[in-house]
């Protein structure tokens, strides 16, 4: 049986700051979808050789992992870069995970916590959760974002600002 993605990620993150992107990221958050590669970002290093040495070192700890390059690399641009249907599914899935967590945290967050959360991810639904916070400063942050979204044409933000109820999605 092959190495589980989680084991590889754990070995890599044991010694380095890592951002897992692509298929492994959504798998790590519970979305079941196949992937044949590992897209990662490591903490900044002095050279690409240093980066490669770290990845090779972690891979060496597993019998069933090796590094390959694709034959016939070709340059892509524009929509080709992100126009895969599964990329859209991945983005929506990860956003839903963050949104759910923020909706849980924002009604009781301090002003500093709310600012930090909404700096990382914000949409009309997270603002709606922040409006349930008893702290007027947190509600003001949410109103500021909602006003910005409404000015850009978001009908949900405008509905909230107008005091209209949004039906469940």
Description of the molecule:
Helices cover 55% and strands 5% of the residues. By secondary structure, the chain is mainly alpha-helical. The protein has two domains: 5-60, no CATH class; 98-161, no CATH class. The protein has a two-stranded antiparallel ribbon with strand order 1-2. The chain starts with a helix and ends in an 8-residue tail after the last helix. The mean pLDDT is 81.
* Order of neighbouring strands in the sheet with most strands: 1-2
Structural class: mainly alpha
Largest sheet: 2 strands, antiparallel
Counting structural domains, the number is 2
Q: What's the overall geometry? A: elongated
Rg value: 21 Å
What percent of residues adopt helix (DSSP H or I)?
Answer: 55-70%
**End-to-end distance:** 41 Å
Stretches where pLDDT falls below 50 for ≥5 residues?
A: none
According to DSSP, the number of beta strands is 2
Succession of helices and strands = HEHEHHHHHHH
Calculate the mean pLDDT score and round it. Answer: 81
Beta-strand residue fraction: under 5%
Number of helices: 9
Give a nutshell description of this structure.
By secondary structure, the protein is mainly alpha-helical. The chain is built from 9 helices and 2 strands; from the N terminus they run αβαβααααααα.
